[in-house]
Amino acid sequence: MRVEHFNNWQVPVQQYVQKGYWHTKTLGQELKDWAKRYGEAVAIVDSNNRLTYRDLDTAADALASGFSLLGICRGDRVLLQLANKAEFVVCIFALFRLGAIPVLTMPASREADIDALCAHAKPVAYITTSTHLGFDYGPMQQRIGRKYPFIKHLISDDGRTPGTLALSDIRGTQPTDLDEPEYQDTALLLISGGTTGTPKLIPRRHTDYAYVARATAERCGMNHNSVYMAVLPAAHNFTLCCPGILGALSSGGRVVMCQSTSCDEAFELIESEKVTHTALVPSLLNLWLEAREWERADLSSLQLLQIGGAPLDPSVAARVTPVLGCRLQQVFGTAEGLICVTSPDDPPDVILNTQGRPVCADDELRFVDANDNDVPPGEEGELLVRGPYTIGGYYEAPEANSRAITRDGYYRTGDIARITPQGNLQIRGRIKDQINRNGEKIAAVEVENHLRAHPLVQDAAVVGTPDADLGERLCAWIIPANGQHLTLVQLYGFLEANGVPRHKFPDQLEHIEAWPVTSIGKINKRKLSEMSAPFHS
Ligand code: J2J
């Protein structure tokens, strides 16, 4: 079965192929090429493994035929919830080879997220681990498996969860007669931070994903001597493909998997593995800059630090090179496609104050007003985009697509931005109802729905408000039922019991008797956000 791409627009496939953006290869075939070219070079390092390109290729083949013997085939979705370990990379390539589609979810996701994802993606298998950073995944995996009969296989990467298949036992040897995927097929489904209460899945093609990896690796100056360290979750588009894991592999470089975001582990790995490239969100950068004051690891191998996912304060940006000794690259990225980056040789003013240029000359950017009319060049507007690697629609979501995609195939980012006279992007704000907490995108409505389910809550509105550590903190406003009082502790207990992941818990809880409203009677979230400022209450 092939997953069809929703599109309002005739994608100029031949043009993309002729211009060299799209190779007529799947990601599984790309790995074969890399293995031929870089064979004995080390591809992936984690705390237990050092896999060469040849090892990775062989392991992916063996696992692909094992999956195939289990009955997993082209077009099947497989939910993958793995930490930054070599198994993550082996699994995705095994699935790419089969044309089965990994649905990449974060280790931090909890039952409410996983449940909603399964209901939408209908995976045939759920692959996760036993425990990671103190959380026991087994019971959640079992409950999800019992709830959804279409999940035929529960698999654990370390074989320690009773009642699951161990990944290491899923190996085939005989060449299987595969219905092989094609280069334009959906390779993987990424999860959108979204603005709705239900998850939206982002289908990325083999060919466009491979293109982004190559193009961003080039803009980062990666080559076979590069060592990329994955600190943010591997399941995130930034870490996986911008250039991340796939960009390093397509350059013949080495990928080092860092299991936590703590400076202790990361700084030690930079020193021991001579890491040259890595990527962080701004809130983590702040911690790294602080830690550098007392942590004396040798970071001299680091050439380029990418920062993206949330606005970066220019004064913080200016500290990167003096404190960490490497160059800075600002990245504006979306899992839906468009990536803009500054170049290492841009003047400092561009690197500190802009998010750079799109990675492809054929990325078509528009900046529009509330009526979808183009604003004059250089003025602020909502950023719309289409091009060789931006989606034309979410997976099986006609309603969301009619809002998110224009009639002529542009994706609405929900970001307010402008282009400087030199052609660099500057993100100026956001119109989507989303909170960007620590670089994690949280749909306000999703948290509001969880809050409204509490018996002491009559109505709820969730807003983001500036926060020195988190970028934005999540502030929940409630109209309590019958004038009662709800404490944060009570709320946390409730959310935890309902399987809401920790990063979606409100940082602040405020009570109000009636909503401030806009001139057309909608809840005035801007006002609520202002009222959430520190010490207001
Ligand atoms: C302000 N807001 C930004 C930036 C993203 C690389 C880097 C990031 C992502 C990512 C990614 C921003 N300044 N520099 O996928 O490959 C906000 C915008 C955007 C949304 C996308 C990558 N960089 N943002 O963050 O899909 O609001 O991708 O629309 O998670 O993050 O979020 P996401």
Q: What would a concise description of this structure say?
A:
Residues 446-522 form the AMP-binding enzyme C-terminal domain. The chain is an alpha/beta fold and 537 residues long.
Describe the secondary-structure layout.
Elements: H1 13-18, H2 27-38, E1 42-45, E2 50-52, H3 53-69, E3 77-80, H4 86-98, E4 101-104, H5 111-121, E5 125-128, E6 131-132, E7 135-136, H6 137-147, E8 153-156, E9 165-166, E10 186-192, E11 200-205, H7 206-219, E12 227-230, H8 237-241, H9 244-250, E13 254-257, H10 263-273, E14 277-280, H11 282-291, E15 304-308, H12 314-317, H13 320-324, E16 327-334, E17 337-341, H14 348-353, E18 357-358, E19 364-368, E20 381-386, H15 398-404, E21 411-419, E22 425-430, E23 434-437, E24 440-443, H16 444-452, E25 457-467, E26 471-480, H17 488-497, E27 508-511, H18 525-531
Parallel strand pairs: 1-13, 3-4, 3-5, 5-8, 8-9, 12-13, 12-14, 14-15, 15-16, 26-27
Antiparallel strand pairs: 1-2, 6-7, 10-11, 16-17, 17-18, 19-20, 20-21, 21-22, 23-24, 25-26
The structure holds ligand J2J.
Describe this protein's structure.
This protein is α/β, with parallel strands linked by helices and 537 residues long. Among the domains are: 360-434, Luciferase, Domain 3 (Luciferase, domain 3); 438-536, GMP Synthetase, Chain A, domain 3 (2-Layer Sandwich), CATH 3.30.300. It contains 18 helices and 27 strands. A hairpin with a 3-residue loop joins strand 25 and strand 26. The longest helix is centred in the N-terminal third of the chain and has 17 residues, at 53-69. Ligand J2J is lined by residues 193, 237-238, 242, 308-311, 330-335, 339, 355, 413, 415, 427, 430, 436, 441.
